[in-house]
User: What shape does this take?
Amino acid sequence: MTRAVFSALLSHWLRNPVQLFTLLAGLALGTALWSGVQAINSEARASYDAAASTLGEGNFTQVAARDSGVIAQQTYIALRRAGWNVSPVIEGRLGAVRIIGIDPVTAPRGMGPLKLGEGADIGVFISGTGQIFARADTLAQLPKGEAQSVVAPDIAPNTAIGDIGLVQRLLNRHGEIDRLIVANNQPLNRRSLADIAPQLVESPAPDGNDVARLTDSFHLNLTAFGLLSFAVGLFIVHGAIGLAFEQRRIMVRTLRALGAPLGRLIELMVVELAILALIAGALGVALGYLIAAALLPDVAATLRGLYGADVSGQLSLRPVWWLSGLAIAFGGTAIAAVGALWSLGAMPLLASAQPRAWAMVRQGYTNIALALGLLVIAGALAQWGQGLIAGFAMLGALLIGGALALPPFLRLVLRLGEAQARSPVAQWFWADTRQQLPGLSLALMALLLAMAANVGVSTMVSSFRLTFTGFLDQRLASELYVRATNADQANAIVGLAAKKADAILPLLSIERPVAGQPAAILGARDHKTYRDNWKFLQAVPGVWDALARGEGVLVNEQLFRRARLGLGDLVTLTPDTSLPVLGIFGDYGNPLGQVVLAENLFVRLFPDVKALRFGLRIAPDQVDDLREALHSQAGVPRDAMIDQASIKAISLEIFERTFTVTTALNILTLAVAGFAILMSLLTLSVMRLPQIAPVWALGLTRRKLATLDMLRTVVLAALTGALALPLGLALAFALLAVVNVEAFGWRLPMYLFPFDYLRLGALALLAAVLAAAWPAWLLSQMPPARLLGVFRHER
Amino acid sequence: MLLMLRNVTKTYSGADTAVLQNVSFDMDAGEMLALTGESGSGKSTLLHLAGGLDTADSGVVALDGVDLTPLPDAGRAALRRGTVGVIFQQFNLVPSLNVAANISLQARLASRHDPAREQSLAQRLGLDAHLHKYPEQLSGGQQQRVAIARTLAPRPKLVLADEPTGNLDETTADTVLDLLCELVGETGAGLVLVTHSERLAKRMGRRLHLRHGQLS
Assistant: This one.
């Protein structure tokens, strides 16, 4: 019996391959969008993990110079002799490669490359020849013959590790150390750091990896997009499974009438769906891999440029990723099928088994109430919700509420159209469109979500770009930025710049907790560069004059939000110095709090801190000359000088790459939604023959009917677009003003881009027209005998 | 006794009056019985109760000695596939299966798949040239003949036919009914034929008439 029932169930798919294709493609595309985005995320995260675990430094307290300069070899030896169990680290760049030197003999257990596997030889590592550990592609970028190369795939991309002596030699920094790693086990009777080396400062193990924290912003946005894409896919699968089950009601009733038990039928349908989910999930994961492989190089470049995080441009198949892709396919199928199976299970044996397009979506007040309820919840969460989970819950409620509101909205508009119609064909058109609505609702909901996601994400990214480039104009007003490696070089830079530059703006900086938050305190010179370019989110009147007089400080938005500060609130800088907040400035992309005070006040409060970074104002056409002079006369490395133009160029390039990724995902999502409409129309075209045939018999030509079908799809897509715009803008607001604030502490201003929305609307209409074209063409070419068959079957 | 109904009553939810009231009758194997009555008199309901497709509110419906009333859905399903064959007015063929697969479907469900018998039935019902066609490619008469073949293939003890010729013209209806009676007669099964047609009812050995849910 099982075999007979199963073969009957499967015969439906063989007889209706388009429907099978719809189901598999819908599920596969939904899974592909989700797993593609997740693949990019997991690959990037794995790269950070590799970076973080390359040395495992994040687990240890570190000692560094107060002035951010180098530590002399003698200081290190003095500390060791005083009982300090510390290990030296030097770091620099050889071309594009970050090279790190460590001392394997003194390194705390669990740190360094000696655990990296085959090829590690402590003798060779510390010997004259030395060993360098890195990925194969990184090793290829290093000079040949300097040391024995050992391939270590676990090391972060573009990173190499060697013995400190070797790295000092390679970097031409003999006897220099950048920082000391403090082992967890230390003798109790050692002398204090201040006694031995007062110029050094101890910083505890950080709570988390800064790079990972920064890149979370990008990943959060991608994850949000992945969720949106999956929601689009889910609606498609829901529609495909719903239609497939509706069409099999006759078969199910017949099989039950012939003696197949309901329980067995449902069991077999679950097995059948599981097989389909497995096939579609595997296809989706493969497609997702292709999407990720195509987009990953751009994402890697974006992350590298935006946050300095190295991400390999190559994708690897991680079990967690493809298993989660399959799980999503099964989960999506289960969510989509549970309602359909429940409905079949509850169907009385003797009930009418005709496919009921009208039953595809529950109509009436329940849906309206659910939509309104969800939208109210979204509003409440936006107003009073706290935390990232509340932010995502708000996003979910907003999107599902918006999607559920679509059918009632369309019904209302169609009723209005019907009421206005005068000619019989127009009346039939509006009435027939309303009748088609339930069968098309899920595909239209998918289109709504795809368009809303497009509007939301592109608004967010464009707003981010506008804000960030504007922010760069404010914050990088100087034409050239120079970083000195020590105080002597700093003096040389000032001496040289004094002759050539229009103004020298030293950037004093010290990291210190402020208002209980990790923060950097900056000292800025009173200069028109700041007065002319900086813009405040909030400020007291005469903010710059008050700041110059040392009457207060400026804080960035992150600190303002995290420490719940307001204008006039006192900020404690040292135990005996507290100053009021004079202004709050936007500081996008920075995870830390920032406090800016006048240069003279900074020098008074932190006399030991010397300026090692400078902004130099100079005519743009003289930047290259000054750069060359600083390099040749003051010995400033070329990579320690950054000019404003190149930073802006890099930033814009990064945004272009970000746009490439989001645009590709946007177009994919829209294409998937267009595909859902096509498949729904194809399925419905069979189900609605009984409605078409009488109108054809009454005198409307097939061509006219096909034209009206095209028009119907365009009208529905346009109405969907009309609702997608406010929903997308609400989504952008949620991402910029709620999720971003919850995740990173800063709020991005929202800008509107009407031309982009018009272009998107045109694209969506084009997708709808393309989707409707084939079914309409099939209708225009339909043999009259097929239409007559409707009357024959009705006998 | 093949079929026994005792004081069977059935009321549909939302209806004011019972569609069947205290209906009782017996039927032996090999007997052919016509069930007539006006529209809404309860003919189809009676047929559905007899075939285990629905359950009575009260009374006893026993098929081949088994009381259907207390049986769960799975038990009634087992009886439907093994003992009863139902021919519906709307044919109820599986649209995605071809004629051959439709004919063998109930026999396979009942684990009585017999290709030779199915072939023979198809031949006698004039379907052997259409075995690879799908229901939508057949005329109404052909579809009804497929439904008859499907019902008779597992050799049921009781055949219930709900206006099987209601959708057919008179000539085709006569041909189909002749074949049905002939084939049922060969298996020794009982046949209950629901019909509006006096002409067809007269061809059955016994006749029951329903009026307002009661036998008259």
